[in-house]
Design a protein that fits this description.
294 residues, alpha+beta, Rossmann fold, 2 domains, six-stranded antiparallel beta sheet, 19% helix
């Protein structure tokens, strides 16, 4: 049992209605979620616990929510981000994954950090999302949003796709490649980094356009402003794939178009560290030395 010593006046709490999402494949996440529920209620707030994979159940509670806490890795936060962005609900991540670029709190420190947040000692960081519209024969089939990236790529066969790419209506190039990443600044430390792209500070409102294994075509990353519209037309004699944040997969056929721009929604992260936390986290997560040489 985790106690809440010297509980503050409930009227002075920064958050009154809180959701806690555990990772259904991490037993320790479920246990911690139960302890956290008891702790938050001990502070005087209302709280509930759900599996982070139960999207429909979570959506039912979003309109009355002040804060959503996730227990898991960055994937858990990405999933929660897509659910909450339109509701302006701040997210607070407890890192139980491998890297944790997005998560704010390590498991051992959560009681003190939760209390700090509830007493109002925090700041909110906003992150841009990418909005993608999937079109076929001139008609929109569906729309998707992602915090890290949208990827258009070849399917399971090891054969290139040809991607006619337009920026604000003007033809840029045809990528002959395994695929194309359209990443936000947040996504610059994810798939885009693995593909050789630059690292962008998270507050930048920019897109990265990065080809994957380009063959005799443009093979450099491009940095685009947030106001642009990117349109990609797929040319392939086999099935291609559209993915978002690595968490959903949509089949594409020859002639399909994906139109991408900045989402009207932003993701709001609750931060408890100093505002220069990103660079320190980056060096630590990537295992790069931080000791100053004399």
């Amino acid at each position: 049992m985790i106690n809440s010593p010297d509980s503050p006046d409930p009227a002075q709490l920064a958050f009154c209605n809180v959701g806690v999402l555990y990772h259904p494949k991490l037993a320790e996440s479920r246990v911690m979620a139960a302890e956290m529920l008891e702790y938050i209620e001990g502070l005087g707030a209302s709280a509930w616990v759900r599996s982070g994979w139960n999207g429909e159940s979570i959506k039912e509670h979003l309109t009355k929510l002040d804060l959503l806490i996730t227990l898991g890795g960055d994937g858990s936060l990405l999933r929660a981000a897509r659910l909450t962005a339109r509701h302006n609900i701040p997210l607070l991540g407890i890192n139980m994954g491998r890297l944790g670029f997005l998560a704010e709190i390590q498991p051992a420190e959560w009681p003190d950090r939760i209390r700090q947040a509830f007493l109002g000692d925090y700041w909110v960081e906003e992150r841009m999302m990418v909005h993608a519209k999937h079109c076929r024969d001139g008609e929109a089939i569906n729309v998707y949003e992602a915090l890290n990236e949208i990827v258009i790529s070849r399917g399971h066969l090891p054969r290139v796709v040809r991607l006619d790419t337009y920026i604000d209506g003007g033809f840029l190039t045809t990528y002959t490649a395994d695929g194309l990443i359209i990443a936000t600044a947040t996504g610059s430390t994810a798939y885009a980094l693995a593909a050789g792209g630059p690292i962008l500070p998270p507050e930048l409102e920019n897109f990265l356009l990065i080809p994957l294994a380009a063959h005799l075509s443009l093979d450099r990353a491009l940095v685009l402003s947030s106001g642009v519209t990117v349109r990609v037309r797929v040319s392939t004699d086999h099935t291609a794939i559209l993915t978002g944040d690595g968490q959903f997969e949509i089949e594409l056929v020859d002639g399909d178009e994906i139109v991408m721009n900045a989402s009207p929604s932003v993701v709001r992260f609750l931060r408890l560290q100093e505002k220069n936390y990103f660079y320190r986290t980056l060096m630590r997560r990537l295992g790069w030395p931080q000791t100053k040489k004399r």
